[in-house]
Amino acid sequence: MFAVSVMKCFLTPTFSAIPKPTPLALFSFASKSHPCNSTTFRHPSFLPLKSAIFSPKSAFLSIQNRGMHVEVAPPSSTGEIHVIVGPMFSGKTTSLLRRIQSESSNGRSVALIKSNKDTRYGLDAIVTHDGVKLPCWALADLSSFRQKFGPDAYDQLDVIGIDEAQFFEDLYDFCRVAADRDGKTVIVAGLDGDYLRRSFGSVLDIIPLADSVTKLTARCELCQKRAFFTLRKTEEKQTELIGGADVYMPVCRQHYVSGQVVIEAARTVLESRKDDCVSLA
Ligand SMILES: [Zn+2]
């Protein structure tokens, strides 16, 4: 009976109701009536299995196999990894900061990290497009965070937020260690795809590690429908090109595919803005 009940834990996943359960897709999208909304997918909860193995009175996990007896120290607390993806202007940073602020107001110790490649709003803060601002650590890589933050201070940390995660090559190892070994809650926000809709950096690599994945949508700049993709308005070809609304626009599938039309429209908009600037000068 024990084996059967354990199997049920695996076969009967529980899904988050935030805001709507979607058991059949890894990603799912918001209702058409609310283009900037999101739906969260959660991995099955394995807590019943874990509680069946761990003895609350013991500080060690006991493993018995073929006469061997091994005791392994469990992590001090259970970590979590939550991933927020989507195109540019879909509110990823806003969602990250909201979660961090919520954790902080619940009395948990938090820290924010962003890539030092993104200098649009200075290096000491993360700023959303609508002006919300929180102090942060701007780093070249995540592996240096513990040392720079201070090992003792790191041990006291509960929650780590990572913005623009596509720029960190060591994202997978950092998240795995922080959650599995160190018991941190890691909240990751980043682009899942680049302007050519290819996987961007290591963001998609951490999905197998994640407790939840949220794909946000923006609003298509040309037709106001839901936008899933980021279109580059300029002719630069490198994958990493830091920019805002002057370089990128969120677009729906139809307008992404008809990219030439979009780019021409964007050029027209840019030209008209230039004319406006000239006329205002
Ligand atoms: Zn569109």
From TrEMBL:
Pfam families: TK (PF00265). PANTHER family: THYMIDINE KINASE, THYMIDINE KINASE, CYTOSOLIC. This is Thymidine kinase. Belongs to the thymidine kinase family. GO terms for biological process: DNA biosynthetic process; response to stress; thymidine metabolic process. Pathway: Pyrimidine metabolism; Purine metabolism. PROSITE patterns: TK_CELLULAR_TYPE. It is an enzyme of class 2 (transferase). Keywords: ATP-binding, DNA synthesis, Kinase, Metal-binding, Nucleotide-binding, Transferase, Zinc. Its EC number is 2.7.1.21. It comes from Juglans regia. SUPFAM superfamilies: Glucocorticoid receptor-like (DNA-binding domain), P-loop containing nucleoside triphosphate hydrolases. It catalyses: thymidine + ATP = dTMP + ADP + H(+). InterPro entries: P-loop_NTPase, Thymidine_kinase, Thymidine_kinase_CS.
